[in-house]
Write a structure and sequence with these properties.
alpha+beta, three-stranded antiparallel beta sheet, 12 strands, 41% helix, globular
Length: 326
């Protein structure tokens, strides 16, 4: 008897493969229409090369080659594309608008019972900071979801900058800062409140801000509330990140007025990865996000390319299938 596929991996038969192909063609058409060009990166990556860009979680999918180099199956496409840009795209060819369609492999407790291999369709924009903004990427995601006919889609924004600025200004110790970042990353807000309450060296205004920021959500009025919390906690105005949020909201006024985008700071995570706006795309009828992305200038800086804007997102083909009934 022929054995089945490994746990978390599956075969895809013609009927479903045709549906996936149709969805992928629509997405690629949207990306291409805005000048995003295709790239491909290896399925196997040198782990140490990716770690220069940002911290990587331990993975079950690692192996040594004949040179004893530790390799890993790529867990996403952002770090590999950033590595490609850092090594092969030169300043004279910026801005770089790149797109990809490729499988990734992950092993995480949060994915238990779900596929461990899935396909990402995404874009990455790398540019001089005066040549582009996150709004371009967000609008491309909005257009793609509309063109696909995703029901009642919406995009929510967050940012790690306010919490990072709070901790820099008010944290009593590096250990406390790391604990807070870890709890926010894991969305464990109950334990977060306990840790904040137990920390005697934290000023009341800072404690209130740390507890409330990652619970904030709503329309553009959130920015003023956030700015007030940070001001009360003693965070300098230039460090708060609220001016960038205001600028983005002005560029996306029509989407805010249409109720398609909003703020939700509960989605903030990956403090050593994202350095600005974070966003996720959702749809009616599915709890998980269809798309996730954000600004990650620090990754390019870590790879030797400081001073650049880097922003992108990835759509999950499998979740698009689910929400589109295919």
């Amino acid at each position: 008897m022929i054995s089945g596929t490994p746990s978390g991996f599956r075969d895809i038969l013609p009927k479903e493969a045709l549906a996936r192909e149709r969805i992928s063609d629509v997405v690629r058409g949207c990306f291409s229409a805005h000048g995003y060009l295709p790239v491909e990166t290896p399925l196997l990556e040198d782990r140490s090369a990716l770690e220069r860009g940002g911290r990587i979680k331990d993975s079950a999918f690692q192996l040594f080659d004949t040179d004893q180099t530790l390799l890993m199956l790529r867990p996403d496409l952002t770090l590999p594309v950033a590595r490609l840009v850092a090594g092969r795209v030169f300043a004279g060819s910026l801005p770089a608008r790149l797109r990809y369609t490729a499988p990734v492999v992950r092993e995480e407790p949060s994915l238990r019972g779900q596929p461990r291999q899935f396909t990402q369709l995404g874009v990455e924009l790398v540019a001089e900071k005066d040549d582009a903004s996150e709004a371009e990427v967000v609008r491309l995601l909005a257009e793609t979801l509309s063109t696909l006919g995703v029901p009642a889609w919406r995009i929510v924004f967050g940012s790690p900058v306010p919490v990072t600025a709070l901790l820099d200004a008010c944290s009593p110790s590096p250990e406390f800062s790391e604990r807070v970042r870890s709890l926010i990353h894991d969305s464990d807000l109950v334990t977060l409140d306990e840790v904040i309450a137990a920390e005697k060296g934290l000023a009341p205004a800072a404690a209130r801000a740390l507890s409330e920021v990652c619970r904030m959500g709503g329309g553009t009025e959130v920015i003023a509330r956030l700015d007030g919390l940070l001001a009360d906690a003693g965070v300098p105005e230039e460090r708060r990140g609220t001016s960038e949020l205001s600028a983005l909201s002005e560029e996306l006024t029509d989407l805010f007025e249409a109720g398609r985008v909003s703020f939700d700071f509960s989605i903030i995570n990956s403090f050593d990865y994202y350095t600005g706006i974070i966003f996720k795309g959702y749809a009616e009828g599915i709890a998980a996000s269809l798309a996730s992305g954000g600004r990650y200038d620090a990754v390019l800086a870590n790879l030797g390319c400081p001073g650049l804007l880097a922003c992108g997102f990835a759509l999950s083909l499998e979740r698009l299938q689910e929400v589109l009934g295919e």
